[in-house]
Amino acid sequence: MKLTPTVDPRPDEPCRPIAPTPRLTSRHLVDPQQEFRLAPELRAAAKTRNPMEMLARAAQAFYRATHPPANLTAAEQRRRHDDHVRLGKALADLAVTGRRSFAAFKSRPPTDASLNAPTRAKLPKSATPADVAAAIKKALDRAYKVGWALRGPVTQQAALRAPLRWIAVSGEDDKPHRPVNVEAPPFEQFEVAVKTQGRTLQTRFFIASADKGPAPAPIPPSSRALPPDPVPSLPAGHKVILFLHGHSSGAEEALEIIPHILKAGKDRGRKYSIISFDLPNNGYSESFNHEIVAPKNATTYPGGIFDHTPIKTPILDFEEEFVAAFVDAVDKVTPIKQRFAGVIGGSLGGNLGLRLGRRNLARDPWLKAGIVSWSPASVWDPMVQDEIKRHAPDHCRDMWMVEEAPRTRWDYFNELYDLKRFIWPHTQPEAWYREGWEPCKTLHIKESRIARQEIYDANFRKWHWRMAGEQLIYSHVDRVNHFNKHTPFRYELNKVRALLIAGAADDWQWVNIYSASRTLAALMVHTPGNSLFLSQTGHSIHFERPRFLAKEIAKFLH
User: Fold this and answer.
1) What DSSP element (H or E) covers 170?
2) CB of 454 within 8 A of CB of 169?
3) Mean pLDDT of the chain
4) Closest C-alpha among 490, 495, 504 to residue 529
């Protein structure tokens, strides 16, 4: 790899407009002071993960909306009616927005007849058959409309989604399987079962191709059936680029740069299909306890200068294996391995890219195409025996040990988005983008908070802290065995052609990714490829400079 001088990527590029997110501020249904957590009544329903139970409760709310007590004033009746209609809609939403409840809903789609008995059991004996049928109809109509808006053909989703406005989802109790109140990708979304290390986990992905092909014929939405699941495929002649998102992000992170890569590829006579997916416990993938991968104490590192506890990162190791297993899983559905153009990603994605560059190419020959890694984590020295820096992984370890409590949700968002420390007087998201990149910086931080509010649960939080801690103790400039000087440095094992990129404004104290990346590039003398360093650019290069970065990616991969 060649160490190159820093270049100026200007002029600046405008940030992509993001559609406003539907928000509900009614304390009857959400608590804005608790990061828009759902009200207890809704959470109690979501915890059942039983769509029939949730729909029966929804029908009960709709019935109550039209049957108020006789002693209320007209104004009180209107208020009561509106409150119960909103409650009924929210309860019906929960029957299809959670991953587990949707799976149950899909396996045995509820009907007006099957919902009659559980609904009647919740209503007064004076309720007439017509009253019961009307309440059930409202509940089912709402649930199926939401199901189609979230899982229907992508060409129809926007029209189906807009009239529904805010949709209830309780990630803490049943993680969503598709974006609900945040921007959804303008591409079909798919599910795939990924088997690795003896475990099978569901995750979501989408494919963005240079050639869209003819628009499919519209599918008339059904009021009592869910839409069919789309089948992934690649257009003929397209090469595959695999996008790896950053820490605690999701597949949507690729949306900013996708159109620019597709255009840059076409400009060079090549058509790309970009595959972006949710890494474990991120985005809209399946939620699971991190301890099924490795016990909480299996992550180890020295506790000081004289401590020789080995550095072990089982979660980070699992993440790398998951990427390879994902490629295997998708290849069985639609062949992609023979069509690879490369792997790209930043931050955690860049870290994983560098790790993938050391894999056995006989086992994973698709990696030979090349790797583009920008702003990679773990390019710093391992934060294990430095008496100041080791407090960072110590804190992460403390946090992944914390069990969920009523205030844990607020604590997580407060620490991540609001808290500033004397030793580092910035919030963490402020370091994701260069100073002065406004109003884009403020907008992106706001949207990332909303996205995490939607998917937050205990598994996501613990995975976040454990992955963060392991990235701090892992290092690409470390030896394979930290305490064994006879083992090689990790960067010496990188044989796959790579492009290493960093921005000069990504040089925040204590992590110094820009400076560390320059050091790493100078050390990777046995790795084919090149480096690229940008002035006036921060950590999230794909957001700040998507057009410039896309051209460099297309040039390198071509």
Assistant:
1) none
2) yes
3) 96
4) 495
Q: Which residues have CB under 8 Å from 274's CB, separation 6+?
A: 207, 208, 209, 240, 241, 242, 243, 254, 258, 261, 262
Work out the pLDDT band at 212, boundaries 50, 70, 90. Answer: confident
The encoded tokens of residue 218 equal 């519209």
pTM, two decimals, is 0.96
Average pLDDT over residues 433-446: 95
Question: Which residue in this structure is represented by tokens 């992955």?
Answer: 467
Give kind and range of the element (H or E) at residue 445.
Answer: helix 440-455
- What is the reported pLDDT for 303? 85
- What is residue 265's predicted lDDT score, i.e. its pLDDT? 98
DSSP letter, residue 56: H
How does strand 239-244 pair with strand 340-346? parallel
The enclosing H or E element of 349 equals helix 348-356
Q: Residue 223: how many CB atoms within 10 A of its CB? A: 12
How do residues 294-324 score in pLDDT, each as one tens digit?
A: 999 999 999 888 899 999 999 999 999 999 9
CATH architecture of 185-211+235-557: 3-Layer(aba) Sandwich (3.40)
Domain with CATH 3.40.50.1820 in the chain: 185-211+235-557
Distance CA 345, CA 351 (A): 8
